[in-house]
Amino acid sequence: MKVIVNATVVTPHGLINDGTVWIEQGRIVCCGAARELPPPPADAELVDAEGLYVAPGFVDIHCHGGGGHWSYENPAAFARFHLKYGTTSILPTFSYNETEEQIIEGLRKVLQAQADIEAYGRAIAGIHMEGPYINPKYGAITSPIRPVNPAEYRKILDMAGEQIKVWTLAPELEGQQLFMEEASRHGIAFSVGHSEAAAETVLDSVRHGLRIGCHCTNASGTTPSPSRYAGTREVGVDEAVLLSDDIYAEVIADREGRHVRPLMLQFILKAKGVDKVIIITDAMDGTGTKDASVDVNLIEKNEFSPPQEADYMLGGSLLTMDRAAYNMKVHTGADIVDLFKMAALNPAKVIGIDHETGSVEAGKRANLLFVTEDIQIRKVFLDGEVVHIYNR
Ligand SMILES: [Zn+2]
Predict the structure, then answer these.
(1) Is residue 358 part of a domain?
(2) Do 223 and 198 touch, CB atoms closer than 8 A?
(3) Alpha carbon distances (Å) from 101 to 28, 91, 176, 215, 377
(4) CA of 238 relative to ligand 1 center, distance in Å
(5) Res. 339 pLDDT band, cuts 50 70 90
(6) Looking at the structure, do residues 286 and 313 belong to the same domain, yes or no?
(7) With 170 labelled, which of 15, 247, 262, 361 sits at a CA distance of 20 to 30 A?
(8) Does residue 86 sit in the same domain as residue 23?
(9) Contact 247, 237 (CB under 8 A)
(10) 17: domain range?
(11) Same structural domain for residues 50 and 61?
């Protein structure tokens, strides 16, 4: 048995001062204030947290790459990279930029990496398909975006249906209704993104399993309605996401406030409440290999780009979850308990793994972090095993 002592434990119900966490066979046996628990068994290995916060490992449900790797090309190295920054459950995220052949090959690699439990397969919690059936008007790079194709999605579902946890789509496209009916049999949480569906269409999709607003206020639009008058603000995808209690809102909190301005982050948090916001990275392959002083990934405009003055547009981020959570704290003032709800428990809930991970609670996997108040990672545990120590 391992017993973490001298910790401030971050739980969904608040902080536990002078806390301890007991770990056996990779799982949390119990946690609580030292004075309320019996002394640790004499043969237990004591791990001194030195007063740091002990928090749940991050769950990132939207992440394309990192450490120089695309998630679908080298999933094990990708998972290993993000593990160092505290992400103990990750969904390798395909985008709308891959061809069918690339998707099939990528799925094969991810499934194989996931099965390798001795390596970092245990940190791969499933798969996120961000497309390819999105609205080309809202894509960063648009070439292989394609209409809904039953032959293609059935092949994907047959191959990896049980492991696909999130599928991002534009509900306004033809064929989406049938797609959602078929894919929902695999328990997939649908995410509305790269879309300009009418708010009514978004809300109606909840009954098919729509649960997520993909990177809220990024790459989403509105359908002009006939009732629109000058000076009247139209409602669209984001407003529907903000309105529905059944839909979680993903946010990319970069330090520059480029994806979501701090005021908008505050607004989203206020509208959704802390139990319905999910912090994501939407990280690209160059994360960790490029200039660490910026969080956004800029790409050159293309013919579909929205009219704007800049020559570049946003193409995901260079974030890791520790930085994203810290930025959320800076931009919204959220406290550490709420940050870990948004960065661990809520995403675990929406993909149905919260009975296993997402919070520091008895019975769950001992996926734990030692962190400072500013979410700097000091130690990472995966299933009770130390997999990373920050070298000061
Ligand atoms: Zn993405």
Answers:
(1) no
(2) yes
(3) 41, 20, 21, 26, 38
(4) 16
(5) very high
(6) yes
(7) 262
(8) no
(9) no
(10) 2-54+364-389
(11) no
Q: How many domains are contained in the chain?
A: 2
Cα 257 to ligand 1 centre (Å): 17
Distance 71 CA to ligand 1 centre (A): 12
Q: Are residues 168 and 244 in the same domain?
A: yes
| Within-domain flag for 210 | yes
CA-wise closest residue to 1 among 33, 31, 28, 34: 28
Instruction: Based on the fold, state whether residues 34 and 73 are members of the same structural domain.
Output: no
Q: pLDDT confidence of 314, banded at 50, 70, 90?
A: confident
Q: How confident is the model at residue 232 (pLDDT cuts 50, 70, 90)?
A: confident
CA nearest 279: which of 244, 256, 254?
A: 254
Q: Find, among 336, 220, 214, 332, the residue nearest to 282 by Cα.
A: 214
Is 308 in the same domain as 269?
A: yes
Q: Say which CATH number the domain at 35 has.
A: 2.30.40.10
* 298 C-alpha to ligand 1 centroid (Å): 14
Residue in the structure block whose two tokens are 């989403």: 220
If you measure from the C-alpha of residue 69 to the centroid of ligand 1, how many angstroms do you get, rounded to a whole number? Answer: 15
DSSP state of 124: B
| CB contact at 8 A, 40 and 20 | yes
Residue 243 Cα to ligand 1 midpoint, Å, equals 22
What residues have their beta carbon closer than 5 A to ion ligand 1?
Answer: 130, 282
Together in a domain, 48 and 74: no
In a domain, 356, yes or no: no
- Residues 164-176 have pLDDT tens digits of 999 999 999 999 9
* 128 CA from centroid of ligand 1 (Å): 9
Instruction: Give 388: exposed, middle or buried? Use CB within 10 Å, 0-12, 13-18, 19+.
Output: middle
H helices present in 56-173, as ranges: 75-84, 100-115, 150-160
**One domain for residues 22 and 170:** no
Tokens 């919260």 found at: 354
Residue 357 lies in a domain: no
The DSSP-derived string for 242-298 is HH-TT-EEEEE--TT--SS-HHHHHHHHHHH-GGGEEEE--B-TTTTTS-TT--EEE
Tens of pLDDT, residue by residue over 13-64, are 999 999 999 999 999 999 999 999 999 999 999 999 999 999 999 999 999 9
